[in-house]
Write a structure and sequence with these properties.
7 strands, alpha/beta, globular, single chain, 14% strand, Rossmann fold
Length: 246
């Protein structure tokens, strides 16, 4: 069923990993999708081609979402092409896998810019430019609930995203817009594998009640539910998608 027929969705960081799967999943449900990327145009074009191959409509937009001017342009191009934006999925993010004592100032600034400021900038645009009864889903992380070494700044930014989302949900609710976060556990992506040994990955498998690492579709299906009409009474929530790690 095309449950999102006629809807327009922006997915940030949609050229790979969880973001690309979310873009494809929303397109398969009938949404017109803006595939945002910052560097890898070839990968973004590949995602858009996959959407076109299943009869969907898409637009590839290069925009560094840690830049407020670029975020404004991202919304401008989406609205110019499709007349509105109904759904915003904030997926763009980076992980620098280091202990706090080893983290350099420029690395910390980069994590804050990409993981936190980008969400603030897109929410600020969405507050006035997202259609009534729209949907916002921000991708957080289960590491906010754990005390894992080498995740300090990353967990701090994701925790801040959760708080921004809760407040935004209250501020925007009068327009019928819902805003939620999804907090994946370990998921097989390039970002997840960065800096980890096979021993690290196997240990994380044992942490999950379901005994495996997540797949990108596990997360995309939850996002699909949250942006659908079926989730119209769910807002200001953080959904733990982690196979029972915590």
């Amino acid at each position: 069923m095309k449950t999102l027929h006629g809807k327009v969705a922006i997915v940030t960081g949609a050229s790979r990993g969880i973001g690309s799967e979310i873009a494809l999943t929303l397109a398969n449900a009938g949404a017109k999708v803006i595939v945002n990327y910052v560097k890898n145009k070839q990968a973004a074009d590949k995602v858009c081609a996959a959407i076109s191959n299943v009869g969907g409509e898409c637009l590839v937009v290069q925009a560094d979402v840690s830049d407020p001017i670029a975020v404004r342009r991202l919304f401008d191009e989406a609205i110019q092409r499709f007349n509105c934006v109904d759904i915003l999925v904030n997926n763009a993010g980076i992980l620098i896998f280091k202990k706090i004592a080893e983290m350099q100032d420029d690395e910390f600034d980069q994590i804050v810019d990409v993981n936190l400021k980008s969400v603030f900038y897109t929410l600020r645009e969405a507050a006035t430019r997202l259609a009534d009864n729209g949907r916002v889903v921000n991708i957080s992380s289960t590491v906010t609930r754990l005390m894992l070494p080498k995740y300090g700044p990353y967990a701090a930014t994701k925790g801040a995203v959760e708080q921004l989302t809760r407040i935004f949900a209250r501020e925007i609710g009068e327009k019928g817009i819902t805003a939620n976060t999804v907090s994946p556990g370990p998921v097989y992506t390039e970002l997840f594998r960065a800096g980890k040994t096979e021993e690290d990955i196997n240990r994380m498998k044992t942490m999950a009640s379901l005994g495996r690492i997540g797949e990108v579709d596990d997360i995309a299906q939850i996002v699909l539910f949250l942006v659908s009409d079926e989730a119209r009474w769910v807002t200001g929530q953080d959904i733990g998608a982690n196979g029972g790690i915590i």
